[in-house]
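Sanity check

After download, print the first record. It should look like this:
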Amino acid sequence: MGRREPAVAGTFYPRDARELAAAVDDYMATARVALGASQRPPKAIIAPHAGYVYSGPIAGSAWAGLRPQADTIRRVVLLGPAHRVAVRGLAASSADVFATPLGDVPVDRAAVQELLDLPQVFTNDDAHDQEHSLEVQLPFLQRVLSDSTLVPLAVGDASTEEVAEVLDRLWDRAATLLVVSPDLSHYYDYETACQLDRETTHAIEQLAPESLASWSACGRIPIRGLLRAAAAHGLSAKTLDLRNSGDTAGDRDRVVGYGAYALT
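Expected structure tokens:
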């Protein structure tokens, strides 16, 4: 059985399982904005992927609203940018499980196989071995959707249409949740970052992938694909949280932006 071992436990998030579970639960318990009981459950969320001390509270805002769906979501299609390995298209993994200190998340091998006949999807384990953008979402998934399987995709140089096609392939499964894992603007001063991230948030709320600039997010490519697919399927986007490292655990001279969004 192929097992993708955790690469950033002890750096991006706690290595100790009890400490990790407590941190994730606290981030969700203190979420700034929660979806109301009358709102339709999300088909997709966008959540940040930095170290938990910086982005954990914002990620908690995205995941907290999924708790009422814990008994209905059975598969999570997770897309994040490939930071360490150059990728053309979307890289799948050959692993059967992705591990964290909280245990193993099984990969939906049948769903991965279903995607591999698309020309933009291929298997590349190197793209996953050290990639944090997917891994940091997994403890949240495990605390909220413990019975779900995973379709992990590291996204490199791909068009909006190529990403949307991948999402469309699995979209109509009622028990499937789509998760995109970006951080927003990088290393601007606090006031500039706030303005840029508001512009990015407006583009997300308007489901306007063409309005996401090159500086908008390190995960702008999967966001663009999600927005294109969301518009085609009649979804709307709601901002749950928008902050940056200057608000959480860093100085305000060079900040990284974080946003949490739900698409319903």
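If your output differs, re-run the checksum step. Summary of this record's structure: The mean pLDDT is 95.
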